[in-house]
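In response to the reviewer comment on reproducibility (Comment 2.3), we provide here a single inverse folding case reported in full, input and output, so that an independent group could reproduce the run without further information from us. The structure tokens appear first.
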């Protein structure tokens, strides 16, 4: 059983996402994106190339400036989102990345660099990122929060 958050968990999700052609049909097409996932004091980098997620790794706060954008929530909210995805096979309308971004005063997606073009990748390729997290419905997750 994969533990969230960990590189192993993200790698398990990445393997499912990459192996299922239905996830590759997301709107927006191929992309090049360096995405951060900030969970409490832990930060992970996910790299998308073309229609695949090609790498996951742990990074530090200083590396956020090099990313196109990052998603930040409290560990408890990440757990609620992932439990919702597991229960439904995908995020329901209350737990999509888009809804979570709109409901937060400071948004879910953030940019350390302030480069609006790079930050906009979250919105342009939102469904791709949603499919990535929806792939987590197919793994059993243990939470450390």
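Designed residues, in position order:
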């Amino acid at each position: 059983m994969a533990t969230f958050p960990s590189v192993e968990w993200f790698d398990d999700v990445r393997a499912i996402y990459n192996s299922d052609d239905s996830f590759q049909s997301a709107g927006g097409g191929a992309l090049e994106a360096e995405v951060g996932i900030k969970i409490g004091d832990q930060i992970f980098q996910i790299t998308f190339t073309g229609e695949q997620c090609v790498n996951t790794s742990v990074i530090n706060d200083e590396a956020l400036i090099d990313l196109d954008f990052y998603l930040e929530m409290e560990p408890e909210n990440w757990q609620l989102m992932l439990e919702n995805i597991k229960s439904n096979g995908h995020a329901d309308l209350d737990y999509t990345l888009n809804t979570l971004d709109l409901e937060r005063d400071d948004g879910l997606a953030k940019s350390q660099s302030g480069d609006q073009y790079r930050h906009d990748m979250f919105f342009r390729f939102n469904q791709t990122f949603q499919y990535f997290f929806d792939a987590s419905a197919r793994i059993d997750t243990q939470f450390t929060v």
